[in-house]
Write a structure and sequence with these properties.
The chain has a domain at about 40-165 and about 200-235: Vaccinia Virus protein VP39 (Rossmann fold), CATH 3.40.50. The chain starts with about 20 loop residues before the first helix and ends in a 5-residue tail after the last strand. The protein has helices at about 25-40, 40-55, 75-85, 100-105, 145-155, 170-185, 185-200, 205-210, and strands at about 60-65, 90-95, 115-120, 130-135, 155-165, 215-225, 225-235. The protein is an alpha/beta fold and about 240 residues long. A seven-stranded mixed sheet has the order 3-2-1-4-5-7-6, with helices on both faces. About 40% of the residues lie in helices and about 20% in strands. Helix 2 (about 40-55) packs parallel to helix 3 (about 75-85). Keywords: Methyltransferase, Transferase. GO terms for molecular function: methyltransferase activity. It comes from Paenibacillus aurantius. Pfam families: Methyltransf_25.
């Protein structure tokens, strides 16, 4: 019945069309935050950031860059995480969509530790943040594009990269299909929500990416609810 999920969908999402936008997309970004809270989308992000921070020796200061941030809401949890550990954190939110940047700037307008700018993950500077994150961004890429995207993020980090995205599974697809229709009438949400699961990943997809990342180590962990936390760090230099 769900054999269509055996392969990643190649169909683009409505949100991938930068020519679209306006009030309907702005509403979709708000409704997407509802879905992300329901499905605990920030969990893999916190798992990855905390693990990289610990592996780096628990530095007292940390810079985080979220590439393809959307509204960036998950970074509220990053700020809470930093407060609980006494870490002086600065967060940069980057998205290519003007609507996303506007919504992120509105959401964090009273937070001096967060800055927002419009840009693309392939335009990031070399080692411009300690940890670079990308949440629910990679399922927008075709399989052949994933290694270059992962490398772009890894090269922009000094400690490592946290990629968190959706597990392509029939339970996740059914849950998102139903929830999208319960919480929103927005066309973007109802179309792109289930499609994003169909464009999601299984562990073998991530292994293929890791095999093409010479000089970097990729580790993949399954996290609730039907997410993957993928960490990319530089391979230790041999003496």
């Amino acid at each position: 019945m769900f054999s269509f999920l055996d392969r990643r969908a190649e169909q683009p999402e409505l949100m991938d069309d930068l020519r679209a936008g306006g009030p309907e997309l702005e509403e979709a970004l708000v409704h997407l935050r509802r879905l992300n809270r329901i499905f605990h989308a920030a969990g893999p992000l916190l798992y990855g950031v905390d693990r990289l921070w610990r592996e780096a020796g628990k530095p007292a200061r940390l810079t985080v860059l979220d590439a393809g941030c959307g509204s960036g809401e998950g970074n509220r949890r990053v700020l809470q995480w930093a407060d609980s550990r006494g870490v002086d954190v600065r967060v940069t939110l980057v998205d290519r969509s003007e609507e996303a940047c506007t919504e992120a700037a509105r959401l964090f307008r009273y937070e001096p530790r967060v800055q927002v700018r419009q840009g693309d993950l392939f335009g990031l500077s070399l080692r411009e943040a300690d940890i670079v994150t990308a949440g629910q961004v990679f399922h927008h890429f075709g399989q052949e594009e994933l290694p270059a995207a992962a490398r772009a993020l890894a090269e922009a980090s000094t400690i490592g990269t946290v990629i968190h995205d959706i597990h392509r599974h029939w339970i996740a697809w059914c849950a998102v299909w139903l929830t999208a229709r319960l919480v929103s009438r927005n066309r973007y949400i109802r179309h792109d929500g289930p499609l994003s699961v169909h464009k999601g990943f299984r562990e073998g997809d991530w292994k293929k990416v890791g095999d093409e990342l010479a000089g970097y180590r990729l580790t993949c962990s399954w996290r609730p609810l039907f997410r993957y936390a993928v960490l990319v760090t530089r391979e230790p230099r041999s003496l």
